[in-house]
Design brief:
The protein is of the alpha/beta class. It has one domain: Transcription Regulator spoIIAA (2-Layer Sandwich), CATH 3.30.750. The chain is built from five helices and five strands, in the order ββαβαβααβα. β2, α1 and β3 form a beta-alpha-beta unit. α1 packs parallel to α2. The radius of gyration is 13 Å and the shape is globular. It starts with a strand and ends with a helix. The model has no long low-confidence stretch (mean pLDDT about 95).
Length: about 120
């Protein structure tokens, strides 16, 4: 059975914001990130925020996808931020070192200001 995950895309000041709700795991990571890649399109001149306010869990595969999105962003001189992490998700991201490579801020407004 597939675990519930919802990713809602909005745009503000030319910045794509992906807001995650639910859990990212083995049952839904491939499908979820395939959809995100399609919505991003090419990675040239993109500004992206992963808003993780309502993300309760993510597994290693999901972390790999987040790192891959960031890698594509960097290769194309674009920008990406992670914002609004719950304490549990932030702990996981810090433990694996993602917060050392992907800028991570407390809220979306901080990320938008940093990208403007």
């Amino acid at each position: 059975m597939e675990t519930l995950i919802k990713v809602e895309k909005t745009e503000e000041k030319g910045i794509l914001i992906f807001e995650f709700s639910g859990e990212l795991d083995e049952t839904n990571a491939d499908k979820t990130f395939k959809n995100i890649y399609e919505q991003i399109g090419d990675f040239e001149d993109k500004k992206i925020i992963f808003k993780l306010t309502n993300l309760k869990y993510l597994n290693s595969k999901s972390i790999g996808y987040i790192a891959d999105v960031f890698s594509n962003i960097e290769e194309n001189d674009s920008q990406m931020y992670i914002s609004n992490c719950t304490d549990g998700v932030k702990d996981i991201l810090e433990l694996v070192g993602i917060t050392q490579i992907i800028p991570t801020v407390d809220d979306v407004s901080e990320a938008i200001s940093a990208m403007s």
